[in-house]
UniProtKB/TrEMBL annotation:
Protein name: Cytochrome P450
PROSITE patterns: CYTOCHROME_P450 (PS00086)
Pfam families: p450
Annotated keywords: Heme, Iron, Metal-binding, Monooxygenase, Oxidoreductase
Family the UniProt entry places it in: Belongs to the cytochrome P450 family.
Listed Gene3D superfamilies: Cytochrome P450
Amino acid sequence: YGLPGMAIRVAARRGDLIARITADEALRENPFDAYDELRARGPVVSNRLLSATASHRTASEILRGDKFVASAGGGATGLLDRVLTAAVDPRALGPVDPPSLLVVQPPQHTRIRKLVSRTFTPRAVNRLTGRMREVADDLLDRIPEGEPFDLVEAFAAPLPVMVIAEILGVPTTMRDQFLRWGNEAAATLDPGLGWRAFWRADSALRGLNSWFEGHLAHLRHAPGEDLLSKLVHDVENGDRLSDTELRATGLLLLGAGFETTVNLIGNAVRLLLDHPGQLAALRADPSGWANAVEEVLRYDSPVQVTLRVASQDLQLAGLPLPEGRPVVTMLGGANRDPEVFAEPHTFDVTRPNAREHLAFSAGIHYCLGAQLARLEASIALQALFERFDGLALAGSPTRRGTRVLRGYTELPVRATTKS
Ligand code: HEM
């Protein structure tokens, strides 16, 4: 992610802990012991290339303070920013102008964020509750009773694409194409991308980008009621998004809309199937679903890692860091910090302070889609578990190949009783 991938892979092979956490495929299934090991070494741990933290307190200080900046051209921070960077100019090696919200600095960040949040309000999101349920029910209608199916392919992946596509006003018929582009582009989030994956991602990004440009051109002539049309035409105090800002923002919303919530839904289903007692309690009292979603976000965070860079020489947790030093903030590790969460490795949907997780980051880059993701996951899970009394694993789930995003590519299940 903007860090020298090869150097990290070599360091990982030599056993360097930070490098292993960021690049070692063996930790894909379980990175949590390594986060504990890192935290035990101190709130901030450094090697030759970078520093890292898995401490909740230190991670919050980094994200909420103003001494660190999200790095332009870096992807992990940038969650989808590598994607966007490349989407704006696939050959761009350095920062592009303008990069997405995820990596721009104030005052530009403040300005763009304000324009977007004016249309993407919690009220606007809450209005979608009924529609989300309809989309979820439609997908569930197609699932055959008694036969094994892949929960990711049939439900967890298409639902967020359909929802974000409707919000943005992009055609839902493009669903499968978006998913293909998204999967190929997501490979760019991890360090040490091989050439083959690079070319695949590059071609996916070109496809997505050029399609999106055409779509925006169409909205200029024939605006609808959707969020993108509003962003194209809205002017506030004489200010509006420039063409490139619009493209970067629209692609960020689209990509963030379907590359993350799929993981939240998939991770939740797996965890609940593994904890039948907790699932039964939620079925009996659905008012617990919102907190259950928070606990999944904490325990199995869909975005595990983000990156910041020291904007000046500074002290962090009492240690000096030079200007320009990258610090990997292990969100998934901060969310297992015993200083904040009692018995952090226990999954408990009734945990009173689950919401203190950093799964949506914190500070100025706090996830703009947090409300949408929470609501969507809670609706999806309720719809699924109401529909199927008996849902059980029907094979071994496969984790996604990425370290930044944590989810499943395949979650085989069987629905025994359809109500
Ligand atoms: C930013 C996580 C869903 C839109 C972020 C960041 C994280 C995150 C960790 C900040 C990264 C950093 O600080 O470097 C998640 C998770 C999601 C989710 C875990 C689902 C479970 C969504 C959805 C949307 C969205 C559904 C929109 C439709 C955004 C945007 C930003 C962002 C626009 C950039 C905000 C800024 O930089 O000001 N998200 N996200 N996210 N997310 Fe999400």
